Amino acid sequence: MRIDERYINILIPYAFNDLMKRGFVPVSSALYNKKLEELGLACEQRQKLPYIYEYKHYFTSPTIMQGWTDDMAEDGIDKKEREYIRNAPISNIFVKGYNFCLPKPVLDSFLRNSKGKVAFHLSDKIVHLNKFLFNDSKASFTWLLHNNPEALKDLLLSYGYDTNDAINKLVLKDISTEYANVEDVSGLINTFIRKVYDKKPHMEIREGLMKTILRLPVNDKNVMWQIILETYIDYLLRKDKAGCPYWLSHFTWEERYKAAAYLGYYLYKDRLRYQQNETTGFANELYYNDEFRDNLEKHHYFMLPGFKETCGKIYEEYDFLVKTSHTGE
Q1: Rounded distance, CA 318 to CA 311, Å?
Q2: Which parts of the chain register pLDDT below 70?
Q3: Which domain of life is it from (predicted)?
């Protein structure tokens, strides 16, 4: 049975009461809205997103882990797609006033038959997600890590929630596994960067994910991140689309230059931890790619601390290598 607005309005108080019985502490509107802002879902933020639907008592937001793809919004959303987004079970519901969230429900999933009696019962996953998000419960976070890591990863993939190191490490583990299997970045969509199709399409950079790389132990396993970042930069700056993941074409050259700058910045910070000084593909791009270098200058190296000086040093060292190779010294 598909649940429409009328059913959801009936469902809300039952869901809230069940949450309360199982340890959820009600939160103020101020705290709730602060968390929504962290997820990019504050009122003024979601007004720009054409795939979020507002109702009197709640709003819906489609999630990547439940089947949403940004391709649907790339060329605008037509009537058929709107119907699908509204009614398919691909969204989270964020309830106003009661201040909690739950996946877009299928009625049967909340009904439990116990000794011949039908009772309303939220899944443990929903309860712990709410207690983690809105009550900052460490116990619920630990439960989710072990029993529903997909919900945690979805917070980063769908909402750009990149301020939690443990969640970032879950996503990084997936990235490293994906890269080890295919040795390119085709499967890394919506990880370090994401194209958001709102009224003014733009790129999100998950800088928190890059910062987590710098907090990983220095060892032979984690040095692989330098290879992954190098590969990502290489694809971002390729003029030839052949062999590039289809989703990279969603980004403008301005966006690709910015993303390459951020990735290069954290690449060299990580190389410093490993005391590495051999040349890189990023150095090659910085030396030969005038458009990329000019873009860095135009944007003041994106105000990344010390990046201008780092790039100057990289350029000088590469220039020395090029000139000595030509003279045969």
Answers
A1: 10
A2: 1-3, 105-109, 111-118, 182, 328-329
A3: Bacteria
